Input
Amino acid sequence: MDKTKIIIRKAVEEDSEKVWIMMKDLAVFERYIDSFAITPQIVKESGFTKNPPDFHCFVADSNQQIVGILVYYFLPYTAQNKPVLYMKELYVDESHRGQKIGEQLMNALREEAKLYNCVQIKWSVASWNGAGQKFYERLGARENRDWLNFEWNT
Output
């Protein structure tokens, strides 16, 4: 059986609702669905209507069905005087895992970072997500143990 062709592309405004569904699925997977406050309208406005947008997004498209997303934004001001890309969300639908879609999305992000002269790509992964950690290590990423993450709720 032939695998379905996957196309990695930048999300467009018409993808807003499908991107939102993937974001919601990720919120379930990462166990924060109870505090998930994003709506399809927020995705549309924040990612596509607003200029500049609050976030950018790559999608994995399989026969005009979104089966994966990678949401990111730029951190323009760093000590190296070069931008950094921050990956906020990476999610592949359960039915399409094991087809290297996550890797394809990450490679698209890496090319985007090079295009914009970014010095680094950063992200967080849940401590309990061993599969995610192994995936990133397999790509050549390393855990940064020099810094601890802090949060301050307002």
Notes: The chain has one domain: 7-138. Strands lie at 7-10, 56-62, 65-75, 84-92, 120-122.
